[in-house]
Amino acid sequence: MDYPGTRLQVNGIAMHVVVVGQGEPVLLVHGFPDSHAVWRQQIPALVAAGYQVIAPDTRGCGDTEMPMNVADYHSDILVEDLRALLDALGIDKVKLVAHDWGAVQGWLFSLAHPERVERYIALSVGHPAAYGSGGLAQKLKGWYVLLFQLRGFAEWLLKAGNWWFFRWFTAFPEEFTQWRSVLERPGRLTAGINYYRANLGLILPQVWPKARVPVCGIYSSGDRYLTEEQMRNTARHVDGPFRYERIDGANHWLQLHAPEKLNPLLLDCLR
6-270 maps to which CATH number? Predict the structure, then answer.
């Protein structure tokens, strides 16, 4: 189901955002290489359950404006994008659901602005302290973060041979047509990779505050990029209720690969 979007001026850029439904607001934040379309199996379920859904294309992604500098994708700016989006919509507090790079943004937003987050459902990516201290196993699973630092080469490699490397890397052929339709537009692939380039330090152990909002962490057993431990260990970094759930048999994009398992769980976590 395709929902019409609108464009809002948010933190100096024109952001494309889908707003649909009535009720308590739920903010959905996607990751790489996605747009708001990654939530297409969740939006109808959330609206039917009585929520208002806000699903933006984040900076440089989908149909949102695409700043050209790597520094424009620093985590501080991404957090400010989310705050400014809620302000533009006149929303004080949301239930936050986020995946992949969206989950990183969700964690940092929850740490910086806990008063704006009623509860947080993090998909795939745990607290930044748990991710950064994930040890060799997580570093090996995250090998591509270093590859993405090679400006120009990474883009060439991902697109070479009719996107062969990208298709091998994502291993989700059912979604390739959707990704390619966006990423083959000039500059869009680089914009997505700039999230990794502007925030390389996040892969290293750092001291982070504990989350002060209720958190539900959901991990999928078929995730090629993240360890289960970094999500389980998130419990140590949440100063409040923490619930861990694992979805077996789903790949990294659990929203699309196992919506029949994720959606009931998501609705339960939101309650």
Answer: 3.40.50.1820
pLDDT in tens, the chain (271 residues): 678 899 999 999 999 999 999 999 999 999 999 999 999 999 999 999 999 999 999 999 999 999 999 999 999 999 999 999 999 999 999 999 999 999 999 999 999 999 999 999 999 999 999 999 999 999 999 999 999 999 999 999 999 999 999 999 999 999 999 999 999 999 999 999 999 999 999 998 899 999 999 999 999 999 999 999 999 999 999 999 999 999 999 999 999 999 999 999 999 999 9
Give the pTM: 0.96
Q: Are 33 and 104 contacting, i.e. CB atoms less than 8 angstroms apart?
A: no
